Automatic annotation (TrEMBL):
Positions of the Uroporphyrinogen decarboxylase (URO-D) domain: 5-340
Protein name: Methylamine-specific methylcobalamin:coenzyme M methyltransferase
Molecular function per GO: dimethylamine methyltransferase activity; metal ion binding; uroporphyrinogen decarboxylase activity
Keyword Amino-acid biosynthesis recorded: no
Pfam families listed in its UniProt record: URO-D
Lineage: Archaea, Methanobacteriati, Methanobacteriota, Stenosarchaea group, Methanomicrobia
Domain of life: Archaea
Any GO BP annotation: methane biosynthetic process from dimethylamine
Alphabetical keyword list: Metal-binding, Methanogenesis, Methyltransferase, Transferase, Zinc
InterPro entries associated with the record: Methanogen_methyltrans, Methylcob_mtaseMtbA, Mtase_MtaA_CmuA, UROD/MetE-like_sf, Uroporphyrinogen_deCOase
Cofactor dependency: Zn(2+)
Amino acid sequence: MVEYTPKERLARVFEGKEVDRMPAICATQTGTVEQMDAVGAYWPEAHEDPVKMAALAEAGHTVVGFEAVRVPFDITAEAEFFGCGIKPSTKEQQPSVISHVVSKAEDLEQFEGYNIEDGRIGNVCEAVKILSDKYGDELPIIGSMIGPFSLAQHLNGDSWFMNIMTDQEFGLKLMEFTTEFCTQYALKQVENGADTFAIIDPTASYQLIGADFYKTFVVPFHQKIVEALHEKGIPSILHICGDTTNGLAIMETCGVDAISVDQNVDPAAAVENVDKALILGNLDPVSVLWNQGEDNVEGVKEESKNVLDAGVQLLAPGCGIVSKTPTQNLQAMIEAAKNWTY
């Protein structure tokens, strides 16, 4: 069988074509302290400076061994772009949203004429270009952003979940706004060289809002982004946190190419509950990859085999990698993927 480059291999998997073996990628955040120490690019600077961001993303390949590079490392740049308050990152902890800027539809008027190249999101796009210029012929360049539902929640605050139930007009207007922004942002990353795209929409959960609200406030908006990506020939991955088992069939109706499932999902059930979408996941990033330390290489190998035996098409962490995860545990997962043939 032909041996493919990492870029060719992942593209063929998305196209349903035969490959020599499984790609070894991570669609969620990849930064760790050991990588930061290895290349001298640290959070919080690597969240903000495009050169350091690209250097830390590159370490996921050169230090750890992932067969792709991916940015960014957090999901707050979009909310920061619109003026939400952000708790700064540390070397070990990601930034978080601490205040919100939209309470009614009229509040959206302040954002008219925004420039998608401004602020930290502009720096993410620049990091994509740096990585593409260096690795675009060989490796998948995975762009990423927060999804429109979770961005709406960042803008509106915790009242968002009540608002979609009591004020549908406002909820839909905010979703239209965030979806238009997300589409522009995704396409800018594609323009700069991203050839695969991950939509991280953690609170867009069937488990949280139920089927009816998911169909109204999530599916059509994810569909718009996915269709825009498909028009450019870009495959998409959707990650939603929590136990998404019962919602997977609805989730894939947006046309997404792959669904990343977290550790709360039984991987065999996930594979059974979708029609066309690939299932990506779902090693526990906390109890398997991180908190048992460097002595858990054999445990990682065993759990990797269990996930692979369940039928997932792409082995990966079930959520973002914890910053203090030992490199050798990630390498054990990568080796399990590389040794697996379909």
